[in-house]
Amino acid sequence: MAEQAIQTDVLISGGGVAGLTAAAAFGAAGFTTICVDPTRPVTTETDPGADLRTTAFLHPSRKVLESSGLWERLAPFAAPLQIMRIIDAGGAESEARLTRDFDASDISDEPFGWNLPNWLLRREMVARLAELPLVDFRPGVATTGLVTRETGAEVTLSDGTRVTARLVVAADGRNSFIREASGIPVKTTRYGQKALAFAVTHPVPHNNVSTEIHRSGGPFTLVPLPDRDGSPSSAIVWMERGAEAERLAALPTDEFEAAMNARSTGVLGQLTLATRRSVWPMMTQIAASFTAQRVALIAEAAHVIPPIGAQGLNMSLADLTCLLDLCEKDPAQIGEPAMLASYNRRRWPEVKAREIGIDLLNRASMVEARPLRDLRAAALGALYSLKPVRKTLMRAGLGVR
Question: What residues contact residue 276 under an 8 Å CB cut-off, 6+ apart?
Fold first, then answer.
């Protein structure tokens, strides 16, 4: 027999990194919160379903992690990102012909951000939710129905439970059920690209430098991780055209290592594969609106971008920060039309501008024609050489006004 409807302030649909962070943030802020996700979170690296990608939390994202009690759990596992290094290797040979360093010390006395594996984020976030009395986390349960009214939303769950909520937060990914049920259209751009994600060890210490190497097909990015079994370690995101990414993913380990070492320009010495390889399709997607009656979209339910400049999850946490700020300022108005209109007005134009910028950067990184690769290197050199421009670019990348 179906249960009576449960009442809550916030129902979060989606238990990925963004959804779990949102649950911790709303629960810590004093709102009764239910978080559901059809898939139980995978919290060990060796599990076949583990998400081997990593997330770099940029500086502005730390505030929401601290206030939700997540940061103290994550900090011991985080690798700081002090320098963002961009290398252009678009010459005849796969070797660095232009290197430019963006150093966090130019704009702050703290690093740009901190990098953590996604599977570990889930492990620590789930543990934090268990400590929060106002949060009810229900893994293995999906949202299957949504009816909204002026007075609130009624959500049906896959186990037959009915929940009435003042606000429904859609954090259920690029194919969001809540977004579709709310009738919000999306605009999608596909690049014919896929990203390989995996971790490596290497003999040369990374010294907290995140390195993005541009040649063709997309950037090859090495992001610092804490040492692995006593050796320096980095996470790699290698973006390539789809067929080439699938070919690389299927190579025997020795052939794959040879290919990745050629592509890395030897920047950290001989790279050794330390995990399995996962493949992710690349796209840009933005919802026509980030709100509907009693519904707010955050993270990939609202926007999807290629993993360039660590923007993806940090845009998601900026969504959360904005939404939570509006709810805390006037808790009586949570989920009301004026509050949701403010959220959409603050976030949609900002996300659209970033989406356009990342799209241009990605297209520039994909170019194969040699004259265009030369033009890319010249543009990078010119932008970097002007110190005020360099500082502005760094601040814009961090989302700092």
Answer: 52, 198
